[in-house]
TrEMBL record:
Part of the ABC transporter complex UgpBAEC involved in sn-glycerol-3-phosphate (G3P) import. Probably responsible for the translocation of the substrate across the membrane. It comes from Devosia nitrariae. The chain crosses the membrane at residues 12-33, 75-97, 109-128, 140-162, 183-208, 244-262. This is sn-glycerol-3-phosphate transport system permease protein UgpE. The keyword Cell membrane applies. It is found in: Cell inner membrane; Cell membrane. Signal peptide: none annotated. It comes from the Bacteria. Its main location: membrane. Residues 71-262 form the ABC transmembrane type-1 domain. PROSITE patterns: ABC_TM1 (PS50928). Keywords: Cell inner membrane, Cell membrane, Membrane, Transmembrane, Transmembrane helix, Transport. InterPro entries: MetI-like, MetI-like_sf.
Length: 277
């Protein structure tokens, strides 16, 4: 009887996983199919198989959206943000994990509040301040804004990793003559590297897909990001949906490839960060 119940549970589990897989992959499959179809066929039936493959959708999308330049801009902006968030977040998280802070509840409330606060609250003051300082169309300045927005999340996550590291490792390194900076860089960072990689992947994804801040502070054509240039492909009165689908596939493809290559470390990192809070 137990064997039958276990088999039924296993079958039900696999059926639910298969259903979730279909739900997850269906939009991507639909995007791939429509990216090689003529615009007229997409409008007529977006679920149909292509009658004729329009590979020129990709070349036109690459040229019209200037992806050669805009994807480089997105990569630079994402890279700067990842470096800043991982650096400041790991330093802050280490201090919060290893020092007894009486006002920790207040700091926790502040981090949670800043994580959930919408960026629209600060957008106008930031824009006027950046315009006054001449920082509009400056990728480094925008990466600082991204860092301020996403650092609280990084600090909260990385702190759980540092808490999970035994203090005896630090004490042993200090007894051996290592400085506190050497303990942090040579002992702690290698141990919490899965958490740092997890933060880097999430922050990179956020930065790559972010639209509101990018379109507000990066207005010049040579500073536009890929997601903004993709948005500009859609016309006010008419749109070439084949080209737009191809452009969407070009934008999401780097993220999908990166996640597939690092998914194992990402899952391990997320699981490790939930062990201790």
């Amino acid at each position: 009887m137990r064997l039958i119940e276990s088999r039924a549970t296993l079958v039900l589990t696999y059926a639910l996983l298969a259903l979730l897989l279909v739900v997850t992959l269906f939009p991507i499959a639909l995007l791939v199919i429509n990216s090689v179809k003529p615009a007229a066929q997409i409008v007529q039936n977006p679920l149909a198989w292509p009658e004729a493959f329009r590979w020129d959708n990709f070349t036109r999308a690459w040229t019209d959206a200037r992806f050669g330049q805009t994807m480089l801009n997105s990569a630079v902006l994402s890279g700067l943000t990842i470096v800043l968030v991982c650096t400041t977040g790991s330093l802050t998280a280490y201090v919060l994990a290893r020092r007894k802070i009486k006002s920790w509840k207040i700091i926790t409330f502040y981090l949670l509040a800043t994580t959930t606060a919408p960026i629209q609250l600060f957008l106008f003051p930031l824009y006027f301040g950046f315009a006054k300082l001449g920082l509009i169309n400056n990728a480094v300045a925008v990466s600082v804004v991204y860092t301020a927005v996403w650092s609280p999340f990084a600090v909260m996550l990385l702190r759980t990793y540092f808490l999970a590291v035994p203090k005896e490792l630090e004490e042993a390194a200090l007894i051996d003559g290592a400085s506190h900076w050497q303990v942090f860089t040579k002992v702690m960072l290698p141990i919490v590297s899965p958490g740092i990689l997890t933060v880097a992947l999430i922050i990179g994804l956020y930065s790559w897909n972010e639209f509101l801040i990018a379109t507000t502070f990066l207005q010049r054509a040579d500073t536009t990001t890929a997601i903004v240039s993709f948005f500009l492909l859609s016309g006010q009165y008419s749109s070439d949906w084949g080209e737009i689908m191809a452009a969407a596939l070009i934008v999401v493809l780097p993220v999908i490839i990166l996640f597939i290559l690092l998914q194992r470390r990402f899952i391990e990192g997320m699981a490790g960060g939930s062990v201790k809070g």
